[in-house]
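Task: sequence design from structure.
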């Protein structure tokens, strides 16, 4: 019996040994380093549909902002009529989108119009988002401002936004910047209200109450403690606002309100060729398809980016 115990002890001595106590080992961090923006990029680029739509946007913007530089297309040049054989050519390898009654390339017209429409949408969205975020942050934190702004919101929100834009564009007159002002003059109220609600939810959380007790200035609390947590909410709002403004511009230009007749846009081009819908449908439907691709791709990319920027989606 004693021999068996000694044999077991000897076998354990061969397999195990004492290690020295390392007091610094407890300071080592075994968890991988977390980077918020790397996690956002990993989440976004893992969505194949979003990546495809992003590539589509890049291609559309490249054509819209580069191709018109070389084409020299003039929307109002009706005197420069090409030879009779160039009129009403259906899409082909020579004329990718076909030609109109004057023999002008629809391909040149569409990308010149897309440049104007996209530019108006981006500028109006930028103005709306910046003003809405600033006003909404103050609105949600100040009870005095809240009493005033809630009445302004109640008045504006009960009037159809498209009607406001239409009336403002008509009363201010035609023009590139006039249309941008008409679209963004009241649209920021909706963004501000959305930010106000989110700020009111987060302002009384424990860490903000503790920060307030420590004497942290209100602007710093808003910019450091609240707004960074609202990135996904802001991106979600932008993903709907940007395509909406492009659609507004197309509708107003189709109705002949907003832009000057000499400024091409997708709405103007669609309006110009709407009479050819039955005889030469490519003149009408190709600009419509490009407009749809722009708005749908921007919306889907924005929604995918909003989901990826939500910290809840990064939890394992």
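Answer:
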């Amino acid at each position: 019996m004693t021999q068996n115990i000694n044999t077991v002890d000897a076998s354990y001595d061969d397999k195990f040994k004492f290690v020295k106590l390392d007091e610094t080992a407890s300071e080592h961090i075994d968890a991988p380093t977390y980077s918020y923006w790397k996690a956002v990029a990993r989440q976004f680029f893992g969505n194949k549909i979003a990546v495809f739509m992003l590539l589509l946007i890049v291609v559309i913007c490249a054509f819209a902002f580069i191709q018109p530089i070389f084409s020299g297309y003039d929307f109002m040049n009706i005197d420069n009529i090409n030879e009779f054989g160039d009129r009403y050519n259906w899409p082909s390898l020579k004329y990718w989108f076909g030609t109109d009654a004057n023999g002008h390339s629809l391909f040149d017209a569409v990308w010149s119009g897309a440049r104007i429409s996209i530019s108006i949408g981006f500028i109006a969205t930028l103005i709306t988002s910046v003003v809405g975020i600033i006003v909404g942050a103050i609105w949600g934190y100040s009870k005095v401002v809240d009493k005033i702004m809630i009445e302004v919101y109640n008045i504006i929100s009960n009037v159809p936004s498209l009607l406001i834009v239409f009336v403002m564009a008509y009363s201010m007159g035609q023009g590139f910047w006039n249309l941008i002002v008409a679209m963004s003059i009241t649209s920021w109220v909706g963004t501000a209200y959305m930010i106000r609600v989110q700020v009111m939810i987060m302002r009384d959380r424990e860490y903000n109450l503790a920060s307030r007790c420590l004497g942290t200035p209100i602007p710093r609390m808003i910019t450091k403690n609240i707004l960074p947590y609202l990135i996904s909410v802001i991106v979600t709002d932008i993903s709907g606002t940007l395509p909406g403004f492009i659609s507004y511009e197309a509708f107003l230009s189709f109705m002949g309100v907003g832009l000057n007749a000499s400024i091409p846009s997708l709405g103007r081009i669609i309006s110009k060729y709407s009479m050819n819908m039955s005889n030469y449908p490519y003149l009408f439907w190709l600009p419509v398809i490009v407009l749809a691709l722009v708005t749908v791709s921007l919306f889907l990319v924005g929604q995918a980016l909003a989901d990826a920027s939500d910290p809840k989606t990064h939890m394992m």
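Residues 36-62+106-314 form a domain with the MetI-like fold fold (CATH 1.10.3720.10).
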